[in-house]
Structures are given as C-alpha cells and as structure tokens.
C-alpha cells in the first residue's frame, strides 16, 4: 500500500514541479491552466519518473485540488487515481480541478471567489482547511494537495476520509472538523498500523500550510517508512 501511495506522491510531484514550456509562459502568466491535454499528457509520462532539479524560475507549480479515493475505497480502483496494467503504478486522473497552485488573495472578493471554486471543484472531505475560509492577503499554494494526500492515505488504510464521520446534511460540521483538525484513529488495540504510520498521516494533516511538508519532504518520509518496513519483513506497518 505504501509503495502505491509513494507512486501517487510522485505523480503529485510532477504537478508541483511542472516546467511550463516557454511558449506558454507568457500566455498563461495570468494564472490560468494550459488547455486540457497539454499538461496532462506531459505529466502522465513523467508522473512516476524521478524529477531532476530545475531552476526555481522555470518551475510553474500546479495543484490538482481534488486528490481522493472513491466513495467506497478499493486499492485497485480509486476515484481520481487509477492503476496501470502492472497493477502497481498509480496514474493521477481527472484534471478538471487543476489550477495554477500559487494564487495571491489580495481582497475579500478574491477570497470569496477562491472559496466558491473550491466548493465546486474540491471534495469536501478531502479539501484543505485554507480553502474552507479563505483569508485575504495570503498566498494559496500547492500544499492544498498535501492535505488531500493525508486524507487519501488515511482512506487507503481505514476505508474513508478521516473527516467523513463529521458530515451532516448541510456539510457544516465537516468544515468545522477540518478547521480544528478533529479526527481520530481507531483504538490502538484494533489498529493494525504502527505509530510511525499514524505519525505520517499526522505529518500531512497540519492545519497551517506553513507547517505542512512539501511533496519532496513527503516522499522522503514515505521512503524512510518503506525502508523500515523492509527491515521488518513488511510487518506492523
């Protein structure tokens, strides 16, 4: 499971470290995503390939903003994540929510617009807290996807989003749960996963995006846990 999750992280890294071809740099400098198909085709080819260091000014981060498993999670088939023919390599799908990741929110009108976009495009139980109540004079960035990865890993292990139990008819309680980071792991005696695994999820689910890791730090942490598991013959994840 962790190896598949690592593959998902590699796909996200391709988005967060996308090198926009020079022909698009001026045309899409206003924050719009390239036409459907361009970035998707380029990134699918490189989703799980190692990313070479790039000059920071050449990197144009994109955020998926709707990374999630299916309503009834299945390790073989997820809502926005499919497995390739080898049944080991995940492919990130459904780019309808894709945006330029780094967005300056300068006034209340901008903030409300970003909230509306998130409400329409980002599944509530996998949506980052900063998208529920967008503040003014802030920068939104690609760390919204890190939160979604934390929710996705929890769902891969336990079958649902950590905040799914908080849903009511209006959806208000889940927003409050997310903003206050109110979720629980199963009782330790009933949990087949280790404390290190739970710590990884907590690492991803930092409410303040400044405290949240970037995708490189996530992959490094996942690699370390996989290495530890290999030494334990894969027992007690």
UniProtKB/TrEMBL annotation:
It comes from the Eukaryota. Residues 1-226 form the Protein kinase domain. GO terms for cellular component: Golgi apparatus; vacuole. InterPro entries: Kinase-like_dom_sf, Prot_kinase_dom, Ser/Thr-specific_kinases. It is an enzyme of class 2 (transferase). It catalyses: L-threonyl-[protein] + ATP = O-phospho-L-threonyl-[protein] + ADP + H(+); L-seryl-[protein] + ATP = O-phospho-L-seryl-[protein] + ADP + H(+). Signal peptide: none annotated. One of its GO terms (biological process) is vacuolar protein processing. This is non-specific serine/threonine protein kinase. The lineage of its organism: Eukaryota, Fungi, Fungi incertae sedis, Mucoromycota, Glomeromycotina.
